[in-house]
Amino acid sequence: MATAPQNPYSEAGVDTAAGDLAVELMKSAVRRTHGPEVLGGVGGFAGLFDASALLSYTKPLLASSTDGVGTKVAIAQAIDRHDTIGQDLVGMVVDDIVVVGAKPLFMTDYIACGKVVPERIADIVRGIAAGCEATGTALVGGETAEHPGLLGVNDYDVAGAATGIVEADSILGAERVQSGDVVLALASSGAHSNGFSLIRHIVSRAGVTYGADAAEFGRTWGEELLEPTRLYTLPLLRLLERIPGAVHSLSHVTGGGIAANLARVLPVGTWVDVDRSTWSPLPVFRVLADLGGLSLESTEGTWNLGIGFLAVVSADRADAAIEALAEEGIDTWQVGVVRGGALPADGFGDFEQGAKGVDGGAVRLVGAYADTH
């Protein structure tokens, strides 16, 4: 008679002890995101957050967001570096909340993997915790799930969800935008977490390995492409507090590119020409476009091209907003002005009108990019 295994679950490919070790390795990083409003510590079935602070709001609105980082994880896996993906996740999730003017409260994460490698999981969560610290967000819980047979031993994916709060009469959006408002661009740190299927396709077709040195960047291809997402939440919240009423709407430039994401936060009946000549796309985008035989213009619906966020602000406070963000270390410049009325029929390009189910304004990119960054 066959002897029954001492741990049938381990024989099936699931290592619960490895999961426990991963939790131990990440505990201190997670705790650093906890203020007095977080109860219960690490490891509970549910995270607890003291909502007493909400009593000070007249009409508090909760804002929520959920997202992942897409196929950027494939590059992290290829070069076995996992300490930056967590910041990318926070950028994708928490920076969506600030778009409505909300302050983030807490976040949870989910990691699915083929095999729990404790050090790898801990690296990912440490990155998430660091991003949460940098955005004033409590990391109150998470889950690591081992899926042998579904994912390869070195494969994983990450996702997260966050909740924030904003006073009802302070919410930002298209309804605040007026003709004559100025559109400001906030510089990105790189590709952030969008367009990586195209990036990986270009790199693969060119026969480039992620561990190869890239002379253009002074580091390897993998290191350049894993440049962490810039986090905008706290600088933008400080801007809203410093210049009350100046910012009318915000747009996070993620999937869909500049035009589509800006159109979502403009009112119907308005339009913007985004002037390409006001900036030069980051070198990483130029190198990738050349490698793939593409024009930069053809990638505008896929990559952020050097703009991670857009702010629609009142014209008389635009300079003050630019100065405030510069003090936060974020290069910011004017790319356009909101106009009302009929769209110009000048043949200078097609407008993107609304996006992702939103009946918003119309946006197009015009002119030629500046030659140097």
**Low-confidence region ranges:** none
Biggest sheet overview? 4 strands, mixed
Question: How many helices in DSSP terms?
Answer: 11
* Beta-strand share of residues: 25-35%
- Element string (H = helix, E = strand): HHEEEHHEHEEEHEEHHEHEHEHEEEE
Report how far apart the termini are. Answer: 73 Å
Number of strands: 16
Form type: globular
Fraction of helical residues: 25-40%
| Average pLDDT rating | 90
Helix/strand-derived category reads alpha+beta
What can you tell me about this protein's structure?
The protein is α+β, with helices and mostly antiparallel strands and about 375 residues long. It contains 11 helices and 16 strands. A 4-stranded mixed sheet has the order 3-6-4-5, with helices on one face. β4, α5 and β5 form a beta-alpha-beta unit. α2 packs parallel to α5 and α4 packs parallel to α5. The longest helix is centred in the middle third of the chain and has 18 residues. The radius of gyration is 22 Å and the shape is globular. The mean pLDDT is about 90.
Brief summary of the model shown:
The chain is α+β, with helices and mostly antiparallel strands. The chain has helices spanning 8-11, 16-31, 72-79, 85-97, 118-135, 196-205, 221-225, 233-242, 257-263, 283-291, 318-327, and strands at 38-39, 48-49, 60-68, 103-113, 138-146, 156-167, 182-187, 213-214, 219-220, 247-252, 270-275, 307-313, 332-337, 339-340, 352-355, 358-366. The longest helix is centred in the middle third of the chain and has 18 residues, at 118-135.
